[in-house]
Amino acid sequence: MATDAPRLYDREGHYRGKLSTNTLDPDSINNPLGRYGSPLSPDSLNNPLGPGNALNPDSPRNRLGNGWRIEGGR
Question: Where does the record place Low complexity bias (predicted)?
């Protein structure tokens, strides 16, 4: 049975991709060529100089930060 992957939103409510292991899904944070998975994309959690910066207080990679919101998924 297919399920919908949970969706990520930053602290301002901007969509940041899906928590999906599907590397072909364009919205997956695990798609290395996608908007939300590429380490070069300004919208990607995997960009260490962007949303994935561990020093950013809103980054999920900052263990002392505020993190992002997860919605949905079944």
Answer: 45-57
3-state per-residue secondary structure call for 16-68: EEECCCCCCCCCECCCCCCCCCCCCCCCCCCCCCCCCCCCCCCCCCCCCCCCC
Q: What was the pLDDT predicted at 5?
A: 93
The DSSP call for residue 10 is -
Amino acid identity of residue 69, one-letter, is R
What's the predicted TM-score (pTM) here? 0.82
The tokens describing 13, both together, are 């409510």
Task: List, for residues 34-48, the tens digit of each pLDDT value.
Answer: 999 999 999 999 999
The contacts of residue 2 (CB under 8 Å, 6+ apart) are none
C-beta separation of 8 from 15 below 8 A = yes
pLDDT at 26 over 90: yes
